[in-house]
Amino acid sequence: MVRGTAAVDAAIEGTRGFLATLLTTVGEVQARGGVLEEAFTAAHDALVGQYGQWAIFQHCLPFDVARVWDELSGIERPVIWTPERDRALWARLQG
After folding, report:
1. How far apart are CA 39 and CA 5, in angstroms?
2. Closest Cα to residue 57, out of 22, 81, 92?
3. With a cut of 70, which residues of the chain have pLDDT below it?
4. DSSP state, 95?
5. How much is the pLDDT for 50?
6. Pick from 1, 18, 39, 86: most CB atoms within 10 A?
7. For residue 3, what are the CA distances in angstroms to 8, 13, 31?
8. In this predicted structure, what is the pLDDT of residue 20?
9. SS3 string of 44-58?
């Protein structure tokens, strides 16, 4: 839990930094014609040093990368997450 103005401001800035790096990194891979697995590796490498200590970083990153990939691909509405999609994406990116 984050309490106090300074801690909340730091948490917001941390989230902004995470998202900016994620968007930039995935976008660069996509722009050069790369694939989702490359985007995941690039995003992980770019983010792990600063955000790897976040409690759910390793668990959520595959899903974060996939969602950004979809968004940058022009998918207007997020693809619905199902248990099957969850397992398949995890196996593809973390397997």
Report:
1. 34
2. 22
3. none
4. -
5. 93
6. 39
7. 6, 15, 39
8. 97
9. HHHHHHHHCCCCCHH
